[in-house]
From TrEMBL, chain A:
Keyword annotations: ATP-binding, DNA replication, DNA-binding, Nucleotide-binding, Nucleus
Protein's GO biological process: DNA replication initiation
Family in the record: Belongs to the ORC4 family.
Primary localisation category: nucleus
Protein name: Origin recognition complex subunit 4
Organism: Drosophila ananassae
Subcellular location(s) of the protein: Nucleus
Amino acid sequence: MLGGNEKEKARALAKVRRFLKARLLRDYTTLHGYKEERSNVRQLLQRTAEMGESNSLLLIGPRGAGKTTLINAVLTDLVDNRSFVENTLIVHLDGNLHTDDRVALKSITLQMRLENAADGKVFGSFAENLAFLLQCLKAGGRQSKSVVFILEEFDLFCAHHNQTLLYNLFDVSQSAQAPICVLGVTCRLDVIELLEKRVKSRFSHRQVFLFPSSGRLEDYLARVEELLSLPENKSLEAASDRLRRLSRIQSEALSLGRNHFDPADGEEIDPPFRKNWNTQLHKMLATQHAQRSLQMLYDFDISEAFLRNFLFRLVAQLRPETPHITADQLRTMANQYECDDKIELLCGLSVLELCLIIAIKHHSEINDRDPFNFEIIFARLSKFAKVSSTMQGMERSIVLKAFEHLRIGELIMPVSVSSSSSGKVQKEFEKHKLALTYGQIQQAVQRYQALPTEVAQWAQSSLI
Amino acid sequence: SRLAEGTPRRSIQLSNIVEKRVFKEDEIISTPKRGRTKKVPEDEDEDEDEDYTPKKSIQKTPTRSRRMSTTTKPSTTPSKAISTPSKGAVAPMTPSQKMKKIRAGELSPSMQQRTDRPMEDSSKSQLQLAREQLHVSVVPTSLPCREKEFENIYAFLEGKIQDQCGGCMYVSGVPGTGKTATVTGVIRTLQRLAKKHELPAFEFLEINGMRLTEPRQAYVQIYKQLTGKTVSWEHAHSLLEKRFTTPAPRRVTTVLLVDELDILCNRRQDVVYNLLDWPTKSAAKLVVVTIANTMDLPERLLMGKVTSRLGLTRLTFQPYTHKQLQEIVTARLGGSQAFKGEAVQLVARKVAAVSGDARRALDICRRSTEIADADSANVKCVTMLHVQQALAEMIASAKVQAIKNCSRLEQIFLQAVAAEVTRTGVEETTFMGVYTQVETIAAFMGAAVPAPGRALRLCAKLGAERLIISEHSRNDLFQKILLNVSADDIHYALRVGEVSS
């Protein structure tokens, strides 16, 4: 009987884990906060669709601040608006994918389903495509459908030749042609400076800045609780309903609805379990330990993307043996973020390689970070090896191998900028610099397992 | 308006450069074209109808692809939302046939149509009407504050058309000062006169450097506006050369407007040279009006022989003063009471102080109406406060706000960069120096010192936002870091935050 109960509990936990993971990863359309900015963008798109107004806007904010989610959320809001759905074409471009105007233009032609495109293939040359697109937009007017251009990684479009695409899109938005709305998304604050002056003049200078609301840890904690707690069934259904309506957006490039987090997908979680989970979570977050750990994360990065990443790893640790998220887990995970990977790397080196690093450190300390080559370091190491009892009889070729190992581990880096000139220098004489701080070496020496005492002493002082 | 009267049909037939197939098509298509010039060219629907009537296809020798479509090839074209009225009568075209039609200029490009009618004017509020009037795309029939320039260009063009000779003009000015609007306004006026037979008829062609993928496409676009056909640039060039250099009776004057001239300049400058050389030929009767931004473009960028051909008939559009901007906005508003007088004045003064760009002023006014609209339902009028908010949104920079919204360690990192700049006295710092400063400041403030790896992440994040300019993290401790905001901004942002909290 007890075994059956255990099994039941394990199943419920698996369900919760799956639910939380899916919500952390695949919830593309739910936006937290940004009320004003959201309504600003929504009204702009609405006016474009309903009144046939032409507009342009730039959405600017640091990475992980929810720029794409904002657009997705606005589009989800507008799905209910019949005149928006039926009168708008959405064209989605990405600066990383559409690396020049040629590719971007083909994509636009396809997404707008113009006459010279058929079944995913665009006919004609680049110049013809541009001319045809411009003619089409010119032929349009108040009676034609509005087109919403979403340009993600907008700053990369600025690097295109002559900024032809941007000029033409902005120019259409400022002349009596088909109503279009150009929505640029970027993380660069100074993106306007990248525009050419005539492109800049045509841009309407509407900028919406998205900054993650910082300032208070309480908001952050509330957000953590919101992301981890299990919602009521009623709100789940509402969310699921909203999701189903997403399929109304007719766009080929925009795949919001596909593989979206569907709260009604899994089986329902029974209310007592949910209540228990939520109270446990609340209690845990109220503890000092948990708050201190979260404060550590918050000090480092306030963006939600970072937080979600952290919580995902936390949720993945849920096991039947440990059915709740504990403050200890939180602390261990946060400490993992704190630790230095390079020290881990140093602790994985052999004693000989560590000795080389120590020799390099001594050389750098004495000569104030002057570059070094193998010969210098080998001489310094031999001086130590002669008097040490463990390192005698070290062959030169083995030390050179260890030196090369350090180099491909990028713990030491060659000085020369041009690789062609360095080819002429023999590898024993090539100048290198140390890519570590002294503090890191110090810590590594302390944490190294079973380091010979001689080496540890040598590390303390360069005198032998 | 693409008129085909000037198409030198005879000269095409004489041509021996032209390939046979293209040459044939030219002949066939130019025949009905001549008849069509009597029609109203703006009426697109009628144009299309004519293209698809069976009568036309009889006139035309069946090309190979056409024969294929009627006999063997089944239709593979996916149904398009746009369909021409008479499409049902003709067999549906394959995409490549369609492309051929597009190249021949027989298929007019079109956009998908709305399913409902756009909103009626009568149902709009005063603010909405004002917003529509303030949109940059609504160009008034007569531009305020550009009367002198209008007169100047009008006199030039009218004189050239009357005299039946060719010439060049260069118009310059910073963006948003009404260059293109004025020139097209002049040409519209002249076209109206020509229609009333008070002026000899003329053709108007228009190209824009920024709408071309490369300078040589200018030939293609010009030829396309003459005949409607798309050909390769070499072919278009030879045809245009023939048209402008061989004398022909009853040749009408052609006015060619070249916008964004600087883009057409490449190293060889053959395109610009040709465009400016044709007016010198007595047979051409070509008047070229060129527009660009910089005043000294001909001397700075163009070769001597090109500058010489461009001549000295030049006109500069000065940036608008605040009085002119105010006049422009009030002219747009008409008698509407949507704006308070001082609100318009504030916009005009702020914009005139920065750039004198009319587009900027109109956009700010439009944003103000939106703010007033959102403000509350009762407000019918845009006041100073709304304009101030719009100006803050559209002119102010957000760097201080960005610094305030950084995480604590990011703020420490920024402070450390500023401190390192103060310490060394040079703008450029290395990561290692900054990291020692970070250690110091963090220890001073009691924060946990981030490991160098994490500090590199902070650096990359700030670099992505462009608060600092950093190299690739591959250079690790040796990457160079520049501060992209002023140190004063950092101090201001962080100090002010401390006081408020």
